[in-house]
Amino acid sequence: MTGGTITAVGGGVGCALLIVLAAVLAATYNRLARLRSAAETSWTQIENQLDRRYALIPDLVDTVQRYAPHERAALEAVVAARGGAMAAAQASGLTRRAEAEGTLTQALGRLLAVAETYPDLRHHQHFVTLQVELSNAEDRAAYAQQAYNTAVQDYNAAFRALPGFRRRDFFRAPGGERGPVHARF
To answer: What are the alphabetically sorted keywords of the record (predicted)?
Structure first.
């Protein structure tokens, strides 16, 4: 072998190594992009279910107000908590949003507890339907939250220090909101 042949073989091996390195980097980048997309899609599902819950609350408040107009504090607390949750949805930061959602959940729980003391309201079909729809939206939001957290966990596990990728935060329910939901009818 002559010096020119060795240089040509070395250059070919170097090119092959660069091609393999580029392929590995592209595959890693694509995997992270796919995992990031899965997390973003899962987050959209949470938002859809929370939006559904926000949409049901005015009907629920109106229905309770017809049967229990003097329960103004509970009604106003739900309206204020809904407004806070919707404002937090527009702001950045999962911690603030989770806290606002927790406040809304507590206010709804108090309102439903108040509703329990009114037999006519408890048996009103529209109220019962709203309770079921609200419960279903909350169940779907909890399921979507679980899917989101799994997607974030997968993303963070695959995360590498590549430009444009950062760790994502989990959506955590505040305080006692991590246990099972108990519906009282």
So the answer is: Membrane, Transmembrane, Transmembrane helix
